[in-house]
Amino acid sequence: MLMPASVEETLQTIANMSTEELIEAGKEAQQMGRFEEGVFLAQEALKREPENSDVLTLLGTLAYRAGRKEEAIKVLAHAVELNPGSPDLLYNLGVVLADQDHAEWAKSCFESVLKIDPMFRGANLQLGRYRIERYEVGEAMEHYRRELEINPGQPQTHFELSQILKHFSRFEEADRHLHMALEREPELAQNAAYHGEHPAELAVADEPQNFLIVSYPKCGTHLISDVAQGITGNPFYWPNEESSNLVTEKLLTEMPDGAFPIGHWYPTESLVAALKERNYRVIIQYRDPRDQLVSFYYHYMDEKATKENYIGNIVRLLPKEQALTLLLAGFNGADDAHTSGSTAIMDNWIQQWIESGVPYQIVTFEQMVEHKAESIDRISRFIGYPMDAARRDAIVEKTAFNKPSATMAANKLPSSFKRKGKSGDWVNHLLPEHKTLFKLLAGQLLVRLGYEKGYVW
Predict the structure, then answer these.
(1) Between vectors from CA 253 to CA 248 and to CA 255, what angle results, nearest 5°?
(2) What PROSITE patterns does the record tag this protein with (predicted)?
(3) Which of 25, 113, 401, 421 could anchor a disulfide with 87, C-beta 3.0 to 4.6 Å?
């Protein structure tokens, strides 16, 4: 490890180091994540021994981690020329080539690896990815299975194989491989961002915060609005004239004093910049996509027929089973533009908010219904409003499903706008073919959101 010093002292220290010492220092820099420093040290070692395979390997790896992809390819290719019988060098070169879309060259490297060492770990996984990208499913599956024979505990292989099997409706096999992957590496579910508060240290605020509520359509927007009004004592602001997709910073500048904004909006660049500038937090609400789909169907059925309501007009013309399939799978509109299915749109909406960079809290509809008191406590802590048991219990009672909604009354919506106010009702509406389509299109989304642990449900 290089100690802080003047440039002259640092250069002199490096000049006095042996090649072996430079290699070790480069490896230490790599472990510490200081990749540019490691590249410099490896380059110095290479000046002394231009054909040292260890130095070339280290430099290629460090250059790749530092984002110097083409330099990494050049260095590792030279290392392979010097030592063509090294499976490690060939594999490392193949990984970099695959990342840079040199697919055929990468494939050749991985095949060469297996000719030298048929039991080399990782090469079959790479070739499986190559095959699946070209829809060569049979060959891909064989490579994945071969990889598991060599390295049966490799979670990434199990995970990727589960995704392939799922797409061919082999759900029980897919489920088994998914569970084996997540038992070894739970992070593969990629679901940590879909729960709790982020950053975690903002879970409790000492004083009232600026906040925005975004709720995906038909996911309990009026309920969470009523709860937030009870917590803060402030009114909501839901400008219906604003497009649900294209709201800008005008939302905040035109909002009445003391109100909090709530809606179905996407995190547009303008809105996110304004939220960050004003130190806003966002509460994100969604629900089980299966229940959302059913609720959406009934919402369209209840709406009045208008020329603008293109989707609703189609839904009302179809039998319920076909309408649910249409909403789930998506369709081409009158202008032949494709409208994505409900789960794809929801997934994109959630992902955009999570990646917006605005501090956020996830509160699901199910949490609001089944654990309302705890949800009220979480929300109040996140937005910095003190809450005692008596006030919390009063909010729970006032926002019960059988009580009038303050938000619906303000928006002049009939009480029939509420449907059932419970979770899990999808089981009474989705047929086996809907469940199969759901697993194909959104099986992994259900796992990420925490509504299922696999594909057998």
Answers:
(1) 100
(2) TPR
(3) 113
